[in-house]
Fold:
Amino acid sequence: MLLKPHVAINVKDLNKSVVFYTQLFGVEPVKVRPGYAKFDLEQPALNFTLNEGGEVSGGLNHLGIQVKSTEDVLATKERLQKEGLTTFDDMNTTCCYARQDKIWVTSPDGHRWEVFTVLADSEDKSNESPVCCTLDESKQTETDCGCS
Structure:
């Protein structure tokens, strides 16, 4: 039995979003139609679709991709930066009861993506504030996040 999660998000500009997600995932979409694009990913196993229009922000907090190691986080950071995307480091942070190394990247519609690895379990939910996943715009870094 194949188990592949499906995530569908609304976007404002399909063309800009297809470029961003092609860069983020490192693969081209398998289907593009007017107002619609589909990525069928093997790693991570995910059926991910973009739908142009509708409510973009909704109640979505953030999205993430868990990788095996800090080296994988840093390799992803390097790849994304080569693609021209801006990344933000959030290394050795404690959130959602785990110590993690992660980076962040934001889509054209403001969807925040983390690429992270779990370093260790923790008794603390966060080390910065009770607010989960709050972006400190002035520092252009994630100050507290996880919720993964």
